[in-house]
Amino acid sequence: MPETLRGGCYCRNVRFEARDVFDAGYCHCTICQRFSGAPAVAWANTPARDFRITEGTPKGYASSDHWVRYFCPSCGCPVFGRHPSPPDDDSDLVCFSILSLDEPRAVRPTAHIWCASRVPYFDTNDQLPRFPDGELTDPGTRGPWRAA
Questions:
Q1: Distance CA 116, CA 88 (A)
Q2: Closest CA to 111 of 51, 22, 38, 50
Q3: What is the mean pLDDT of the chain?
Q4: What is the distance between the alpha carbons of residues 137 and 97, in angstroms, rounded to a whole number?
Q5: What is the band of 42 on the pLDDT scale with cuts at 50, 70, 90?
Q6: What CA–CA distance (Å, rounded) separates 116 from 129?
Q7: pLDDT digits (tens, 9 = 90+) for 29-41
Q8: Looking at the predicted structure, is the pLDDT value of residue 48 above 70?
Q9: Is the pTM of this model over 0.85?
Q10: CA contacts within 13 A on the Cβ side of 15
Q11: Residue 109: how many CA atoms within 13 Å on its side-chain side?
């Protein structure tokens, strides 16, 4: 049975549960940079069927034609994102911030994406694979997301 991860916003008005995480990484895209005010965002993906809001009602903002970012309307903290018109099959994903988890050390990133947008003064020493855009290799070809 998959582990249930719990998290939410800073003020705890919006809470969520996620199960069956299958991938995690750092995003260096310019949209994540602007929304977070940081050079990169640590994210994890879970199938939409394994994600649920347990408290509160997040507010959505379409940051592009293919992505809606949800945040707490009280404290403004980003909580998760997903496609605005998700498919009916099992490919519907929810992406949430690893640092919004109650136990963020439970999930570790396995790759860097959108590295073509990386700000030059932010560099990491890890040996994780780097991808210039959002196209990743299969998660099974990279290290495990579950922290040791």
A1: 32
A2: 22
A3: 86
A4: 20
A5: very high
A6: 13
A7: 888 888 888 999 9
A8: yes
A9: no
A10: 8
A11: 23
CA 123, 124, 129, 131 torsion-angle sign: negative
d(CA 76, CA 85) in angstroms, rounded, equals 23
C-alpha to C-alpha distance for 126 and 94, rounded to whole angstroms: 26
* pLDDT at 3 (0 to 100): 81
Token reading at 113: 């994406």
Please check whether residue 134 is in contact with residue 114, taking contact to mean a CB–CB distance below 8 angstroms.
Answer: yes
CA–CA separation, 101 vs 148, rounded Å? 16
| Cβ contact 97:87 at 8 Å | no
* CB-count burial class (<10 Å; 0-12, 13-18, 19+) for 1: exposed
138: how many CB neighbours lie within 10 A of its CB? 7
Long-range Cβ pairs for the range 119-125 (8 Å, 24+): 119/28, 119/33, 119/39, 121/39, 122/28, 122/39, 122/40, 124/26
Dihedral, CA atoms, 55, 61, 62, 64, nearest 10 degrees?
A: -110
